[in-house]
Structure formats: C-alpha cells, structure tokens
Amino acid sequence: MIQDSAASGDAFAADLLRGHTDTIVLGVLREHDSYGFEIYKHIRDATGGGYEIKEATLYASYRRLVRDGLAEAYWGDESQGGRRKYYRITDAGRAAFRQNVASWVATRTIIDSLLGSQPAPANTKGSLR
C-alpha cells in the first residue's frame, strides 16, 4: 500500500515514486536474491514505513522485469514452509538500474535548480529545448 504522508503534514508525493517501482525493485535485488514479500518488507523498512507499495503493483513489476530480461525468477526450496518464487537481477538489470539512477540524478538536479534548491547544472546535455 502506498501511504501518502501529506495527510500527516509531511511533504511527500507518492506519485513521484510510482514510476520508479521497477528501479526500486532492481535496487533491492542488487543486494541479494529475494522473494516477493521480502522485497515488499525491505522497501517498507528502508523508508521507516513511510512508503509501502501495493502487492499488486509489486507483482506487476516482477512480471515486467522478468519479461524484459532485467530479472530472473526461480523457485526456492521448501525448507521454510511453502515454495517461494525468488527473483535475481540479471546483468541487463544491473545496467538498467545504473541508467535509471543516472537519469533520476540528472532529473533531480534540474528540478532542484528550477526550484531554487541548488545552482543550475553546468552541463546542459539532454536539454529539453
């Protein structure tokens, strides 16, 4: 579930993060192979509960990442209850993650400069003119 902290007075726009679900999942998978609910818990815990992604959104992301060759799915053993489907990042997924993070940093820099939060970037590569 995505929680909008704006209701509690915090300036948090969950809409800004929704388009980055695949990158967030790839970031988790960079650390180690994980199963679906474990990824959910990692995201929730990493944000102190401030950001939770709906289960349906996550599972759509897993399917998309596998379909696009950015992650692989495999079944774990049954040592702790039922079998779990695990996900691992592929080399293509690592490359996509790096590119997505670079794009996010460039976008954040531009937005910060437009909002007066930091000086304008010296490099205008990728100008939107």
What layout of secondary structure does this protein have?
Elements lengths: L13 H5 L2 H11 L2 E2 H11 L8 H13 L3 E5 L9 E5 L1 H24 L15
Antiparallel strand pairs: 1-3, 2-3
Question: What does this protein look like?
Answer:
The structure is a single chain. The chain has a domain at 5-90: Arc Repressor Mutant, subunit A. Helix content is 50%, strand content 9%. The protein has 5 helices and 3 strands; from the N terminus they run ααβααββα. The protein starts with 13 loop residues before the first helix and ends in a 15-residue tail after the last helix. Residues 1-11 have low confidence and may be disordered.
Task: Name its key features.
129 residues, mainly alpha, Arc Repressor Mutant, subunit A, 9% strand, elongated
Strand percentage, roughly? 5-15%
Tell me the name of the CATH class of the domain at 5-90. Answer: Mainly Alpha
What is the gyration radius calculated from CA atoms? 17 Å
Percentage of residues assigned to helices: 40-55%
Number of strands: 3
C-alpha geometry: elongated
CATH-defined superfamily of the domain at 5-90: Winged helix-like DNA-binding domain superfamily/Winged helix DNA-binding domain
Uncertain segments are 1-11
Order of strands across the widest beta sheet? 1-3-2
CATH architecture of the domain at 5-90: Orthogonal Bundle
In terms of structural class, how would the helical and strand content be classed? mainly alpha
Task: Round the mean pLDDT to the nearest integer and report it.
Answer: 84
Q: Oligomeric form of this entry?
A: single chain
Order of helices and strands: HHEHHEEH
What is the CATH topology classification name of the domain at 5-90? Arc Repressor Mutant, subunit A
Q: Can you count the helices?
A: 5
Question: Major β-sheet, in short?
Answer: 3 strands, antiparallel
Distance between the termini: 37 Å
